[in-house]
Amino acid sequence: DADVTQTPRNRITKTGKRIMLECSQTKGHDRMYWYRQDPGLGLRLIYYSFDVKDINKGEISDGYSVSRQAQAKFSLSLESAIPNQTALYFCATSEGGRGGEQYFGPGTRLTVT
Amino acid sequence: GENVEQHPSTLSVQEGDSAVIKCTYSDSASNYFPWYKQELGKGPQLIIDIRSNVGEKKDQRIAVTLNKTAKHFSLHITETQPEDSAVYFCAASTASYDKVIFGPGTSLSVIP
Asked: Is the pLDDT of residue A57 over 90?
């Protein structure tokens, strides 16, 4: 089984709808991240969390919110989706402290029409 | 904040040739520089990293070099193979790994 899973893998939604993307990990890591990938812009950090009680904004948090339900679960919400939020979204985890490697999920392709 | 630039954005090489991808960073406090490979339909995966206390690191056909004075670091792939075709991202971070800032990516195509 994959260490980092994301659901759904693909989603098409309409402008104005609320949508939640979910991430689960079995690596036992404390740190979790949400990134957005757009062609030519690389990976941009939306939010990150170093433990269940810690939530931090990244480079592009406007229009997004997150919830860290447990050490293993970190969800990303779009309260009112807009077309320029169409992108590939990745969740990642890391052990922090002992090393910088991040482990990425397979991604969620979100299309907002 | 940190800014990471990466060149070229696309690169095509013949199988067996070498490929070089170059990155620059802006924050002199950065001291951890990972490289990630993203295959089609998958999430990025770490392939090699370097810390500021070394200037070069090799792992089989892959090597990274770091010039802290110039704030440059590069990825070198020798004897390229078709399975090296992917998007490669450089990144920079401080030792606390609070945030990893990624470059925009290089799409590498290895032509058989």
From this structure: yes
Per-residue pLDDT at A39: 84
Give pLDDT tens digits for B63-81: 999 999 999 999 999 999 9
* pLDDT reading at A47 higher than 90: yes
| The pLDDT of residue A40 | 82
Cβ distance of B34 and A100 shorter than 8 Å: yes
d(CA B11, CA B4): 18
Which residues make Cβ contacts (< 8 Å) with residue B69, sequence separation at least 6? none
CA gap B85, B55 in Å, rounded: 26
Asked if the Cβ–Cβ distance from B43 to A107 is below 8 Å, we say yes
Question: Burial, B79: exposed, middle or buried (Cβ in 10 Å; 0-12, 13-18, 19+)?
Answer: exposed
Among residues A18, A16, A4, which one has the least CA distance to residue A104?
A4
* A44 interfaces chain B, CB cutoff of 8 Å: yes
Amino acid at B81: Q
d(CA B26, CA B46): 22
B70 CB neighbour count, 10 Å cutoff: 8
| Partner-chain contact B102 A42, CB within 8 Å | yes
